[in-house]
Backbone:
């Protein structure tokens, strides 16, 4: 009996201990359960918060895109009118003494376009939307083009603009000629801008860098120079050595930052060295990707060829859908100048254009994109649907005329069934060349 009693004590203790442990475990687990739930809730809230922030960022990115597309359009449209009409005035008879005013308007319009393009490029790079081409190009030809374009500006300031090519540079390399032109133009324009006397030289040589061959471009001037402490920061966005100089010389402080990013996107490096009041040298290297054979040829159309192309088009009947009176005036004047006998009918919005298209027989449609009531996309889509419903009629070429150069908008032109696009402001060869291409395609079909 006693033994039994003795044996029960530890058993009772064990049971009590188990009970206490159980209660403790229950209490602790309850507490942790609450904690876990709390944690879970916090994670859930953070997730929602992050998602909200992502949504907000995406929204603001698309607002930015939207703003850029609109700003691009809003500024390009009047710019198109200004530079186009200046060209018409220059082309027509005018008193000789007006030349300098026309040149000034033309130059100012060009300057504004450069600023506008800089802002767009900068935003595109930031958004990771700027693509670098890799196509056959002749680097010496790019340098010569830049020299040709800037020669007058240098001569106006009494500066010598030269170029120097060292060693054997392959005639064809893989690269992006437009971006290379942009970088060199930026650097050489700055060099001319910040040099009062002496010369500006663009040079190119092939160099070994880390066992690889690179092309080294340099733009050297004998200008005001850049202080040492500013050399590191001038490649930053909006950075200028002396803000007051930009009032005198113009500029946004974006050129060097864009150039640096364009060089780096092509796997290169850019540096600047300078001695105050003696001059500066900007040097950049790009990987040398030589190709053996010329696989593409740049096509430049001369004025004579343009006239020939225009004449060969014969008396076209064109429907021009455009809401801006200035643009209508401009397009009518340019088209009538190059395409003899052309008949142009105009519609002030997409809706009218679609109605006119159904009523009449046209050879070609030139379609503005942003128009009131019905935009160009919708009008083009309607035209294509209407054509499809009339089984026997083929497709009349529709060329978009757009002041927006955003890729998404260009892609949309093709998606709704348009055949080609002309940017605004257009160069005459873009207008006549594109119409010619489409007319030829139509003839072949
Ligand atoms: P912007 O020329 O439009 O102001 P950039 O980014 O091209 O912008 O240049 C930034 C600044 O760097 C200029 O404002 C100028 O102060 C300085 N800079 C650039 N190139 C030169 C040069 N060749 N000589 C002297 N200063 C220069």
Residues:
């Amino acid at each position: 009996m006693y033994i039994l009693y003795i044996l029960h004590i530890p058993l009772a203790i064990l049971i009590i201990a188990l009970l206490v442990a159980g209660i403790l475990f229950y209490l602790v687990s309850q507490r942790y359960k609450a904690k876990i739930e709390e944690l879970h809730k916090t994670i859930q809230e953070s997730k929602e918060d992050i998602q909200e922030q992502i949504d907000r960022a995406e929204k603001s990115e698309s607002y930015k895109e939207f703003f850029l597309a609109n700003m691009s359009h809003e500024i390009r449209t009047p710019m198109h009118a200004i530079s186009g009409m200046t060209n018409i005035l220059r082309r027509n008879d005018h008193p000789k003494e007006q030349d300098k005013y026309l040149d000034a308007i033309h130059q100012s319009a060009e300057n504004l376009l450069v600023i506008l393009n800089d802002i767009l490029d900068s935003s595109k790079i930031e958004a990771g939307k700027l693509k670098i081409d890799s196509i056959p190009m002749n680097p010496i030809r790019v340098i010569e083009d830049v020299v040709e374009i800037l020669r007058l500006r240098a001569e106006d300031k009494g500066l010598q603009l030269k170029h120097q090519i060292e060693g054997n540079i392959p005639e064809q390399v893989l690269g992006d000629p437009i971006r290379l032109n942009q970088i060199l133009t930026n650097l050489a324009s700055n060099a001319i801008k910040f040099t009062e006397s002496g010369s500006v030289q663009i040079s190119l040589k092939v160099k070994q860098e880390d066992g690889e061959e690179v092309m080294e471009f340099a733009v050297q001037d004998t200008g005001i120079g850049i202080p040492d402490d500013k050399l590191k920061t001038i490649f930053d966005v909006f950075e200028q050595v002396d803000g007051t100089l930009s009032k005198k010389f113009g500029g946004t402080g974006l050129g060097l930052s864009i150039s640096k990013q364009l060089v780096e996107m092509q796997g290169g490096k850019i540096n600047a060295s300078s001695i105050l009041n003696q001059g500066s040298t900007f040097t950049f290297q790009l990987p040398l990707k030589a190709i053996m054979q010329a696989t593409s040829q740049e096509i430049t159309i001369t004025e004579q060829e343009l006239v020939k192309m225009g004449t060969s088009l014969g008396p076209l009947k064109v429907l021009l859908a455009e809401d801006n009176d200035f643009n209508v005036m401009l397009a009518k004047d340019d088209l009538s100048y190059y395409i003899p006998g052309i008949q142009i009918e105009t519609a002030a919005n997409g809706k009218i254009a679609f109605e006119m298209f159904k009523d009449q027989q046209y050879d070609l449609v030139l379609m503005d994109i942003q128009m009131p009531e019905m935009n160009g996309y919708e009008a083009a889509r309607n035209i294509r649907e209407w054509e499809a419903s009339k089984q026997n009629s083929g497709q009349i070429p529709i060329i978009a005329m757009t002041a927006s150069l955003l890729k998404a908008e260009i892609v949309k032109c093709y998606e709704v069934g348009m055949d080609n696009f002309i940017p605004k402001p257009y160069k005459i060869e873009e207008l006549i060349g594109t119409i010619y291409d489409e007319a030829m395609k139509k003839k072949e079909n």
Observations:
- The radius of gyration is 33 Å.
